[in-house]
């Protein structure tokens, strides 16, 4: 039964990938958390502005005491409460333009959040493939070191018996130490990748498996986040023009004030007149005041016209920026597709070169062991073999990362294109 479990689990070990897990962990990064909060803030700002335009009810209450000299109609003590109902009827379209502008800012904030999400996925994908590629190169470096180590040990025995020259021994030994140094340098690079993964995800996840990304296809519809944000900025600039134009129109508002008063006059009058005074000066009172108001700026030395002109220029800037982003994105996507095509051809060529280098090294290795070729030819063949392997790994790594860059620039969530 235990053997059967091992057999069933073996395909997962051989073919499973944790790239999606790495991408999902990257979404917990603080950068994305900040963008989520900023998106919520934009929603709240839009909701707050809408509610500010609804009728508002406020209460104003106070206790007032007048000491020393006062008029007979001024109470010595007064306690009052006033309710005010306010509502803006018309403001030249500023209310609608402001609400639409806040909705545009809400959309921009949401796009920024999604862009950050995909950017973190791109970082995770890049680290994943860099880690896999570098670990294969390190494995090749270890194999190279072992080749040179066994050769060096054999040469030391030959040198001690006079069957090998000193310059051959020193050349192989130098090559051995340089290969060990390269191995340690690559191991340090791998540790740096793991450090970046820990910073990105908060966990020490080690990339595993052999994930790839789907083959991309060009789409004329541009969904790049920079392009979408630039388009929303055009709409935002247009609403700012409408907001500036609204200053030419009057504002109409209505206000209703309802107040309650309790007064203690304690008038300083002769005793016979106290009753008459108390009848005139009411101790308890209430009043209701309705105001239909108008506010209109008639003349301002043309400052409103300058404001409108400035906002119209901002629309032109936003349109120019949107056109530039669209052109840049379109050209970048076409270039990445060409790059992917060339990399695919490069991988096929490097596979052939690696196969040829392997065959050549096997032949040279046997001849060198038999003393039929010099150590110079041996070292050249060894270097060609491992360089071909390294070049192939780097090309395959660049191929997958370039596809990830294409999806990022196309505004497509990278995680949806992962093939486990």
TrEMBL record:
Signal peptide: none annotated. It is found in: Cell outer membrane. Its main location: membrane. The keyword Ribosomal protein does not apply. It comes from the Bacteria. Keywords: Cell outer membrane, Membrane, Transmembrane, Transmembrane beta strand, Transport. The keyword DNA-binding does not apply. Belongs to the outer membrane factor (OMF) (TC 1.B.17) family. This is TolC family protein. It comes from Campylobacter taeniopygiae.
